[in-house]
Every structure is written in structure tokens, then in C-alpha cells.
């Protein structure tokens, strides 16, 4: 036989990239010593073997282009090269029989190993028996009969591997292992009966088959099987051109290496593709049963790096299932903050040049795009009554990633919208889409999808059970449904997982999923859209669904909690004087029931305390909020609520201590969160979870480990502590006078600036910025006992964001905010642009009238209105014992020095409203200190930030009254009512001006309506109404109003609860 020489480079150009026929032959190991025809037929045969052309009629061609069938190709190859045709002929017979195992058109590449039981632990996956084994037996016998002296060393190795392959096809796995065990694996992989890539393909096939034999033998050994599969992948380096591209997430961000990336094996290397995919699939299935998560991911990454270039129709079912396993592995592998990237990243190497979290996110994005392309090419819109299960499962997995990384929310939403075009009103997709849209502030779309979801579920349940009584109320009623039974905890399986209805059985969501989505929609309608009546309809439906069964006590507690919060909101927004006490009582009853069903819920106790406080039941409210702090002593809003309630009892020092404790704990938590969000190592190692198997013993994906409850956004956390410190300043003014309060207010502006500055956290870590904590009575440190509270282990339940009702409002840009200048002297360049507030830069004798506001007004339901957040001075002068009656009120208050001037930047509406409230608080303190000029400038700043804030115009009206400008005060108060017709401070201000002007009847008409509506709990309104009735000689009514005003004043908090705290806390 003529010796074959493997040339490393092309003789024409010394390059592997040459595409000339001679270069192709060179890559196949064909030497020119065999002659031109020999090289030609060797190249044809090698190409047929690499692409697995076993079923092709004419796998080769003559030099002139004529078709060559298998027999003729082998004859001519043997004639011109001296190669052994019997070895290749036997291989063709065995491989063709193996390929025929595929019984359907979808299995043209043989069994893909993705059947229902293929991934079960220790079980033999289904093997389709051969219809006839005669050809295979004859081929094996022929190989065994070949005299060794007639074979070269390379041919003997190929014959041995082909014989072992034949034993495997005949299901004689032990004989196959015996043959593989005696093989010389250290020999050159590129040397075979047909050298080059054909020989490497033969070796890859042998390793993959050896691994399957280890799994299927009489004494299975999955560890040895896994080693064989990994060895098969290592043989990629022996190919003439490495087919494994570097994934994009491992490349530098500015790299554009599409042209330089090697091309994965395609149709011309189909045999190689078959056994690479088999080896990687079986390796992934074995590794996924272990806790070696890094090895599992390396295998899956390698598989998908190769699969990215495969034809869409190649083993589509296998690729869909591997995609699902890949996404599950990625979800479980979310790295903790500051973690280093494990190396190597692939089975063949690979090093990431970015941090672990950045690399993880880039890998997830690429995996999602790959999955989308795969399912677009391998699935279609289902027929009536059928499901597109791969797309639904993909959408389900994709929707989980935002729980780990909030920045992936938009990617997940885009894929869910795409999924709706490949299936028909999937309950799962609509449910997931509702939850994600609700977190992004897209309220209109979220509401539309939520209503469609509820309608779809109810219709499906009605179709399944025509006697079902579950339905959405047509309108809200004052009647309140009660739970008729106490639901039991969900049954727990042997693995400790709660049993639940399968998601895709008939595309019917479980009762728990339905109830939880109803709660999401309820919160959306109340907090984001401000429609309490609609929210109550869906909360009631959730309660009805609980009575259907299958709901745990914790979920039932959530339903009761939501009903209580919605009812409390209705008592404030939509109730008259008859309905209000009923709604309040119902709200408290629901919330008390929630605390009974789940006594470990700090949030339920917070909501109960809020409802009791709103109903002026201060002592029960204090008891409830202390229970909340026992369960979660790091809840800033619970500390804030405690401080507010203590002011209602007159315990101002205790309230100040509560504020100090809340601020201290917030700062400690914020440092830890800053390190986590900055991807820095954390001392406590939060986020590290022990690895666990991805597959159950039955080969089914295990329910993913729930991601930790996501922290609220940076702005929401900042808002909670800013509101707490605003309350702290009100208390400080009461106890220590406006002078000290204004100094702390300046510190609060500095705190706001530092925390909203772009990149502030990184800068603070680098420069070691000192804390801006107010050095007063220090609260408890992390882990120290809280006064009056027993120390407990806590699980943080972070507050959830509360957004504006207008869907067009953009989300907060938390990183694009600069320092707040607090420019008390730098207004000349800006004031001419604002035509409402009189400027101190000009003569004080000239005052501009309040103009009619824009038609695009902030809805009254916006939770961020914080209308009276300027503390006790935001409305009419209070008769409460607050800072206005402080012992220090007569002391001379000096204003703080002007801060340095900095450039003003555009802020998001939520930030502008919060900053406006800060300026209004300063304006009120300046006014009470007798500093009218500084007060007016602060009002101008507030109007610049948020001209549609009605509290701005109330402060301007109060300022004008103090300056004896009655007409201007009238216009300012009137504008506050134009912005919000039911705004109590504005109505009280107008009514008092009417009383001063002698228009008693007008004042009475305005106040009578106010106290029946939104001003029912405003002492100033009742006090002024008492004065009006006294002037009308209605002494009994005047006494009644005065007593009620006194009752409200005795239970009044230093700031109104809706202005200081969100109604809904999560």
C-alpha cells in the first residue's frame, strides 16, 4: 500500500486557509505520492466519512464530475491508493444500520438521546431495536476475519474501532467495552484507514460510543462514561481547523472577531456533529445529576458554542432540551458579588476578561438570543387545541432571570412578547408578562395583559367545569366576603418541595399561580394606577379563589393582607361618611386575619399598624408596628411608622430615638447593598448557595431555587430614608427649634446630593466619604437590642416601589443625577423662566399672579404626591403641639450659609418631587423662624423642581398671608385647588381667607364638603368649620366640630401618614 503523508500546510501557499483542491486534500491527509487520482478519491471518501453520507446514493464524484455510488467510490479509492476497502465498507454498513434507528422524520441523524427517560439517573434510555441485524453481524464478522498481516497499523486501529462500534449497534455493550479497553488510545488520532479529519471523526465516534457503552453495560459506570465524553471533546484540537468558536461573552467588549472566529462543524461535517452532540448531551445529563455545577456549565457552554453554527433542523428536540438545561444551570449559577470567574469556562479552555457577574449577564443575554433563534426555526404556531410547549417552557425560564438581575427585565419582556406570536394566549406567558410589566412601570400594558390573563383563566376554568362559580364582580360593593375555612399548608413531597399543579397540563395555571397573579394585579391597580375600586374587584376574586382549595396559609394571608390594604385605601379615596368607618373596620379585620394566618409576616403587621393609625387607633397601631420590628428590625419604614405614631402620643424623645435607629440601620444596610451592587466582595458572603443537582432521579428538571427577594431600587431605598429624616427634622424643630432643624435640613440636602450623584457609590468607596448621619441620640447598631424589643433573627422583606399612575412617566434614572446645589442666592438666571412665584431677585413690591396650571396634571392618586410633606407647616397653621409652638419658636434663627454653586441637571419626576418637598420643608422652617426672604427663595426652588406640586402653592399662600398680601394668598391657595381640587391644606387656606373677608357662607360650603370627603381627619378643617358655625350662631354644631377637632388633634402624627409613608409596603 502506498504510504499516505499528512501535509500540515498547502503546498501552494503554505496556509491552512487555502481553498484549492490540493489544500482540501492536504487537510484530509492526502499525500501527492498517491497520485492525482488517488488524492482525489481519498478526498471524496474522507469528505463522505466526515459528513456521514451513509444513506447517500452517490457520495463521491469522478475527477470529471460524474456521480459515484458507494461501491464504485470504494473500488476506485482502493485501486488508486491501495487502501483497505473492507474496513471502510464494514463501517458504512454498521453506521447506516445505526442511523436507521431513527424511526421518524425528525430523527434523520439517529436517536438524539432526548427522550423522556434518556436523562434519568442510572436508567437505560430507550433504544430502538434494529429491524435487521444481518448486515451488522456480517460486517463485524468480516472485520474479525481480516488477517492482521494484510493491514497496516492505521488500518488495524480503524478495524478495531469499527468492530467495537458494531458490537455497540448489536447492543453487545460488554463486548464493545472489551474491544475499546484493548485499544491504543495514545496513538495519533489523525492516523486511520482514511487519515486526517476522517480519522479524527472516527476517534470522536469511538469515544462517544465507549461512553454510552459504559452507561448501558451490565455494570454501568457513569463516571467512566463522563470521562469518555470529555475525551471526545478534547479531540477537537486534532481537527485541521478547530471548529469551536469563542463565545461572544468571552471576548473583549470592543472585539469584532466574527470574521476570525472558526466556523463550527456544519452539514459537511455532519457525522462529527452527531457524535459531538451525543457526547456533550450525555455528559451534561450525567453531570446534571451531581452537584458539580461548574463542570455541568462547562459542558453546556461547549455544547452551545458548537450548536450556534449547526443547521436549524439538526436534532432540534435535543437542542431544545439542552437549551432548557442550560438556562436552568445559568439561573442556579448566579455569582455572588465580587466573585471571580471560574476557569476554564469551556471544556476546551476559555478565559473571561470581565467580572463574574458581568460575564454571567452577557452569557445569559447570548443564551436568550440563541434560544429565540432556535425556537423560531424549530417550532411553529400550534394548531387549535395544541400547545407550543418548547416556547412556553422557554418563556417560563426566561422570566426568572430578572429575579437575579433587574437589568434583564427588558430582555425578558421582549422575549415574552415574542412568545405570544408562537402560541395562543398562554396562561403562563400572560402571567409572567403581567408580573414583569408591573415592575417596569408600564402600567397601561401591564393592566391590559393582566385583564386578558384573568379573562383567559376564568374562561378556561368555566370550559373545564361548567358549574364553576368563580367570576369577577361586575362592580364593587360595601359587603365584604369572608374566608369560610382555614387553608392548610401545601403538602410537601419527599424532597421538601411543595407540590403544585403542573404548569402545562392543558395550559391551566394552578390555583396558587392564579391567586398570586391576582395579588400582583391588585397592587398594580391600587399603587400604580390608583383605581382602588377595580383593585377591590380582583382582591375579592382572589379571596374566592382561595376557597377553591390548594392554597397555603401564607398565600391566604397575602390575600387577606391585600384586601385589607385595598379596603383601607377605599376608606380614604372612595368612601363617604357612611362607608368610611365600615371600610376602615373591614380593613383592620382583614389585616388582623392576615397576621393570624401568617404570624411571621412583618409586612402584614406593618400594614395593620398603618390601618390602625389611619383610623386614629394609636395604641393598637403601636403594638402592631412593634410586632413588625420584632420580625424585621431593619425595616426603615417600620421605624418611620413607629416614630410617627409616638409623636401622636406626645413621646417626642422616643420618636426621635426611633428615627435615629432607623437611619443608623439604613446606613449599615446601604453599605452592604452598595458593595453587592458594585460587584465587590462581601464579608458575609450573601448570595452564596451550595450547588445542587439540576435533574431529578427521573431525569426531570428540578424546580429552580427561588432567587432572593430583590432589593428595591437605589432611589426607592433613598426615598425611604429621606422621608424618615424629614420626619426627624420635624421632631427636631419641635424639640430644639428651627435653628437646629435648618442645620440638619442642610445636611439632608447634602445627603440627597451625595446619594443621587452618578457614580457616587464607587467614589464614596474610593475616597472614604464620611457618613452624613446626624450626631444626635444614637440608635441601636446592627445586631444590638432595640429598646423595648427582643432581638430576633430577621429576614429582610424589602419595600416595593410605588410609582406614579401615569404610564408615560419615565422610570427613575438612578445614575444620571448630579449634586443638589441648594442655591439660595443663584436664582437670577432661572427665575424669569418661572412665571408663578414672586422673585426675591427683584423688588418685593412686585408679585406675579398664580397662573392656571397645565392641563397635564399629576393625578391625585399618585402615591408620591407627598402633598403635605413640608411637615407641620405644609398646610394651615396647626393647632397641634408641634414646632410652631416650640419653646424655641421665639429664638432668633440664623439661616445656613449658602452652599457652593453647581450646575443644575435634569432629574426624573420622582426625584424632582422629593427635592421639591425638601425645599418646602425648609420654606416652612424659614417662615416659622421669621426669615421670609429665605422662605420665599426656598418656595421658588420647590416650584422650579415641581410646579404641579399643590404643596408649593399652599406654602406660597401661607407666605403671602404672613406678608399681608391677601389677594396673592387667595390666588396661591386657589391654584393649589386647581392642581388638586380636594387638597385639604388648600381648601382650608381658601376658607380662612373667606372667613377673614366675611364670606361666611362660602367658607361653610367649602368646609362642609371638605370634612365629608378628603378632609375628614384634618383638625384644621374641623376647627375652622367650628369658627364658621359659631359666626352663624350655630353653637351646638360649632361645639360638635370643635370637640371632633380636638379629638383628631390628640391622635395626630407630626406628618400625615400618606405624605410620609407608602400605603403599600413590600
Automatic annotation (TrEMBL):
InterPro entries: Endocytosis_PI4K-reg_protein (IPR051722), TPR-like_helical_dom_sf (IPR011990), TPR_rpt (IPR019734). Residues 823-836 have a biased composition (Basic residues). Residues 754-881 are annotated as: Disordered. Residues 865-881 have a biased composition (Low complexity). Residues 848-858 have a biased composition (Polar residues). Residues 755-766 have a biased composition (Basic and acidic residues). Belongs to the YPP1 family. Involved in endocytosis. PANTHER family: TETRATRICOPEPTIDE REPEAT DOMAIN 7, ISOFORM A, TETRATRICOPEPTIDE REPEAT PROTEIN, TPR. This is TPR-like protein. The lineage of its organism: Eukaryota, Fungi, Dikarya, Basidiomycota, Agaricomycotina.
Amino acid at each position: 500500500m502506498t504510504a499516505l503523508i499528512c501535509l500540515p500546510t498547502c503546498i501552494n501557499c503554505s496556509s491552512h486557509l487555502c481553498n484549492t483542491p490540493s489544500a482540501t486534500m492536504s487537510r484530509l491527509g492526502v499525500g501527492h505520492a498517491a497520485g492525482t487520482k488517488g488524492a482525489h478519491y481519498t478526498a471524496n471518501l474522507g469528505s463522505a466519512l466526515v459528513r456521514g453520507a451513509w444513506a447517500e446514493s452517490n457520495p463521491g464524484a469522478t475527477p470529471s464530475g460524474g456521480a459515484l455510488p458507494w461501491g464504485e467510490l470504494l473500488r476506485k479509492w482502493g485501486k488508486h491508493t491501495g487502501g483497505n476497502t473492507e474496513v471502510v465498507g464494514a463501517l458504512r454498513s454498521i453506521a447506516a444500520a445505526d442511523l436507521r434507528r431513527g424511526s421518524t422524520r425528525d430523527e434523520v441523524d439517529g436517536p438524539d438521546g432526548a427522550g423522556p427517560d434518556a436523562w434519568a439517573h442510572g436508567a437505560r434510555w430507550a433504544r430502538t431495536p434494529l429491524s435487521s441485524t444481518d448486515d451488522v453481524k456480517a460486517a463485524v464478522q468480516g472485520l474479525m476475519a481480516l488477517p492482521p498481516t494484510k493491514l497496516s497499523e492505521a488500518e488495524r486501529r480503524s478495524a478495531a474501532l469499527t468492530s467495537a462500534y458494531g458490537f455497540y449497534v448489536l447492543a453487545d455493550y460488554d463486548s464493545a467495552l472489551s474491544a475499546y479497553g484493548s485499544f491504543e488510545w495514545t496513538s495519533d488520532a489523525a492516523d486511520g484507514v482514511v487519515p486526517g479529519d476522517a480519522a479524527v471523526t472516527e476517534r470522536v465516534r469511538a469515544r462517544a460510543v465507549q461512553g454510552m457503552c459504559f452507561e448501558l453495560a451490565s455494570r454501568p459506570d457513569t463516571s467512566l462514561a463522563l470521562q469518555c465524553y470529555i475525551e471526545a471533546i478534547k479531540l477537537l484540537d486534532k481537527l485541521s481547523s478547530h471548529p469551536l468558536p469563542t463565545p461572544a461573552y468571552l471576548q473583549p467588549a470592543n472585539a469584532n472577531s466574527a470574521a476570525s472566529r472558526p466556523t463550527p462543524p456544519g452539514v459537511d461535517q455532519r457525522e462529527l456533529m452527531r457524535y459531538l452532540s451525543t457526547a456533550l448531551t450525555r455528559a451534561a445529563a450525567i453531570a446534571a445529576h451531581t452537584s458539580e455545577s461548574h463542570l455541568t456549565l462547562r459542558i453546556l457552554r461547549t455544547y452551545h458554542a458548537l450548536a450556534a453554527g449547526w443547521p436549524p433542523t439538526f436534532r432540534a428536540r435535543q437542542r431544545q432540551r439542552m437549551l432548557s438545561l442550560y438556562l436552568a444551570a445559568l439561573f442556579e449559577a448566579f455569582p455572588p458579588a465580587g466573585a471571580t470567574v471560574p476557569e476554564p469556562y469551556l471544556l476546551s479552555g476559555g478565559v473571561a476578561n470581565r467580572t463574574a457577574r458581568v460575564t454571567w449577564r452577557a452569557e445569559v443575554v447570548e443564551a436568550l438570543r440563541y434560544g429565540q433563534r432556535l425556537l423560531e426555526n424549530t417550532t411553529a404556531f400550534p394548531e387549535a387545541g395544541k400547545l407550543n410547549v418548547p416556547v412556553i417552557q422557554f418563556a417560563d425560564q426566561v422570566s426568572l432571570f430578572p429575579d437575579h438581575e433587574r437589568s434583564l427585565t427588558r430582555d425578558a419582556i421582549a422575549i415574552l412578547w415574542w412568545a405570544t406570536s408562537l402560541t395562543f394566549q398562554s396562561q403562563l406567558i400572560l402571567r409572567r408578562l403581567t408580573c414583569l410589566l408591573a415592575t417596569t412601570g408600564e402600567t397601561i400594558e401591564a393592566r391590559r395583559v393582566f385583564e386578558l390573563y384573568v379573562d383567559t383563566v376564568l374562561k378556561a376554568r368555566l370550559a373545564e367545569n361548567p358549574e364553576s362559580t368563580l367570576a369577577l364582580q361586575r362592580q364593587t360593593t360595601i359587603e365584604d366576603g369572608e374566608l369560610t375555612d382555614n387553608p392548610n399548608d401545601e403538602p410537601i413531597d419527599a424532597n421538601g418541595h411543595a407540590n403544585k399543579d403542573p404548569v402545562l397540563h392543558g395550559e391551566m395555571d394552578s390555583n396558587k399561580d392564579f391567586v398570586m397573579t391576582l395579588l400582583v394585579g391588585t397592587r398594580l391597580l391600587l399603587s400604580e394606577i390608583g383605581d382602588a375600586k377595580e383593585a377591590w374587584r380582583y382582591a375579592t376574586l382572589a379571596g374566592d379563589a382561595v376557597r377553591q382549595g390548594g392554597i397555603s396559609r401564607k398565600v391566604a394571608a397575602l390575600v387577606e393582607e391585600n384586601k385589607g390594604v385595598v379596603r383601607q385605601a377605599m376608606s380614604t379615596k372612595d368612601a363617604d361618611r357612611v362607608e368610611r368607618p365600615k371600610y376602615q373596620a373591614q380593613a383592620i379585620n382583614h389585616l388582623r386575619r392576615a397576621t393570624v394566618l401568617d404570624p411571621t409576616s412583618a409586612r402584614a403587621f406593618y400594614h395593620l399598624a398603618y390601618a390602625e393609625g389611619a383610623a386614629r387607633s394609636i395604641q393598637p397601631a403601636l403594638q402592631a408596628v412593634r410586632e413588625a420590628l420584632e420580625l424585621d428590625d431593619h425595616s426603615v419604614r417600620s421605624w418611620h411608622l413607629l416614630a410617627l405614631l409616638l409623636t401622636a402620643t406626645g413621646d417626642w424623645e422616643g420618636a426621635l430615638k426611633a428615627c435615629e435607629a432607623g437611619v443608623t440601620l439604613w446606613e449599615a444596610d446601604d453599605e452592604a447593598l452598595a458593595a453587592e451592587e458594585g460587584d465587590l466582595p462581601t464579608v458575609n458572603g450573601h448570595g452564596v448557595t451550595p450547588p445542587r443537582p439540576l435533574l431529578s432521579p427521573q431525569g426531570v428538571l428540578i424546580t429552580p431555587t427561588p432567587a432572593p427577594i430583590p432589593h428595591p431600587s437605589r432611589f426607592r431605598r433613598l426615598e425611604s430614608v429621606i422621608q424618615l429624616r424629614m420626619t426627624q427634622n420635624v421632631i427636631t424643630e419641635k424639640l430644639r427649634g428651627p435653628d437646629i432643624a435648618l442645620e440638619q435640613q442642610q445636611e439632608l440636602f447634602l445627603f440627597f446630593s451625595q446619594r443621587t450623584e452618578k457614580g457616587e457609590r464607587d467614589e464614596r468607596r474610593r475616597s472614604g466619604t464620611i457618613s452624613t448621619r446626624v450626631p444626635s441620640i444614637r440608635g441601636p447598631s446592627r445586631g444590638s437590642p432595640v429598646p423595648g424589643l427582643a432581638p430576633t433573627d430577621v429576614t429582610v422583606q424589602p419595600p416595593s416601589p410605588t410609582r406614579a399612575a401615569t404610564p408615560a412617566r419615565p422610570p427613575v434614572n438612578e445614575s444620571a443625577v448630579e449634586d443638589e446645589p441648594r442655591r439660595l442666592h443663584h436664582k437670577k438666571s432661572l427665575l424669569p423662566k418661572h412665571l408663578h412665584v414672586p422673585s426675591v431677585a427683584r423688588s418685593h413690591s412686585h408679585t406675579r399672579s398664580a397662573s392656571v396650571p397645565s392641563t397635564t396634571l399629576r393625578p391625585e392618586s399618585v402615591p408620591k404626591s407627598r402633598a403635605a410633606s413640608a411637615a407641620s407647616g405644609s398646610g394651615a397653621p396647626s393647632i397641634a403641639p408641634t414646632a410652631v409652638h416650640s419653646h424655641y419658636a421665639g429664638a432668633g434663627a440664623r439661616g445656613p450659609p449658602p452652599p457652593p454653586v453647581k450646575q443644575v441637571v435634569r432629574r426624573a419626576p420622582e426625584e424632582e418631587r422629593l427635592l421639591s418637598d425638601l425645599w418646602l420643608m425648609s420654606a416652612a422652617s424659614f417662615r416659622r423662624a421669621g426669615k421670609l426672604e429665605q422662605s420665599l427663595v426656598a418656595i421658588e426652588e420647590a416650584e422650579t423642581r415641581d410646579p404641579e406640586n399643590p404643596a408649593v402653592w399652599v406654602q406660597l399662600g401661607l407666605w403671602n398671608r404672613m406678608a399681608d398680601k391677601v389677594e396673592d394668598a387667595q390666588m396661591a391657595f386657589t391654584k393649589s385647588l386647581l392642581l388638586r381640587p380636594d387638597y385639604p391644606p388648600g381648601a382650608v387656606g381658601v376658607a380662612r381667607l373667606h372667613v377673614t373677608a366675611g364670606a361666611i357662607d362660602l367658607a361653610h360650603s367649602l368646609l362642609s364638603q371638605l370634612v365629608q370627603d378628603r378632609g375628614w381627619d384634618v383638625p384644621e378643617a374641623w376647627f375652622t368649620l367650628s369658627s364658621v358655625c359659631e359666626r352663624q350662631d350655630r353653637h351646638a354644631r360649632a361645639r360638635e366640630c370643635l370637640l371632633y377637632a380636638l379629638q383628631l388633634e390628640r391622635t395626630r402624627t407630626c406628618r400625615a401618614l400618606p405624605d410620609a409613608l407608602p400605603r403599600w409596603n413590600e
